[in-house]
Structure formats: C-alpha cells, structure tokens
Design brief:
29% of the residues lie in helices and 18% in strands. It has 5 helices and 6 strands. The longest helix has 13 residues.
Length: 147
C-alpha cells in the first residue's frame, strides 16, 4: 500500500461554525449540568472536535441561583481562595456563596473542568451565567438545551 486510503480531517478555525445555546439551571444538579456545559464549550459534542483548537460553542446559563446540590453539600462543600498575602486563605460554604454571588457556583465548577491553558481560558470566555431568566443575548437566537 503506497498511500493512505484514509486520513484524519482537521477543521481549521475559519471553518468552525459557532452556535449559541441556552441552558436553564433551575432544579438541575450542579455537577451534572456543568459537565455538559464544559463539553459544549470544548466542542466535544461535534464530530469535528480538535483538542488543540477552540471548536466549542457559546453557552448562556440562566437561573443559576436555583441550581441544586445533592446530599448535604450546601453546608459541607467549601470553596477556597487565596488573597496572595501571608495567611490570606479564605473559605466560604456553598450556601453562603450562592447567596453572595449565585453565578460563581456554576462558573467555578465549569472552569475546573476546562483545560488549564490559554485555550481553556478562551473557552471559558464563551460562558455567560445569569441569576434570573433575563439575558442580553437574544439577538444571537440561542437554541435551548434540556438535559
């Protein structure tokens, strides 16, 4: 056999078609909905997925304050951050974080599921999380996804 009868086709950035999706997080489990959102942001739901290219779509999440955790995670799950100063480690429970900044619960979970690189940061910029039902992206005509 002198030549390959098959070749893997890689799609360039110019050919990727970016779509907009909207997800309603009301009464959805945080981990399960965030894994699906991360797949869409990375583009793993497309047959033209390329690991070294940003082939994912845009995702709008509404009703982020009405998402749920299973078990006793509202009280037991702790989010850690560091101010950068000595002794600057801060922690907050999931229930308190949901009251203080409801979008942060979903953003933190999705960000942890994306690659830790320039590409992952570019993917994360395509995520838009809102507390209520209203969002400013109606002109993009997002299609609703139900999980």
């Amino acid at each position: 056999m002198k030549q390959l009868s098959y070749r893997t086709q890689f799609v360039s950035k110019l050919v990727h078609q970016k779509e907009w999706y909207i997800v309603n997080a009301e009464n959805q489990t945080v981990g399960r909905i965030c894994t699906e959102i991360a797949k869409i942001l990375m583009g793993k739901h497309k047959p033209s997925f390329t690991p070294n290219d940003d082939a994912g779509d845009y995702v709008i999440v509404v009703n982020s304050n009405k998402c749920v955790f299973t078990g006793r995670k509202w009280n037991q799950k702790i989010y850690l951050r560091h101010t950068g100063y000595p002794g600057g480690q801060r922690m907050i429970a999931a229930r308190d974080l949901n009251v203080k900044k409801p979008t942060s619960v979903i953003e933190t979970a999705v960000k942890g599921m994306l690659p830790k690189s320039k590409l992952g940061r570019a993917m994360f910029k395509k995520l838009f999380v809102y507390e209520g039902v209203a969002h400013p992206h109606t002109a993009q005509k997002p299609t609703e996804i139900k999980f």
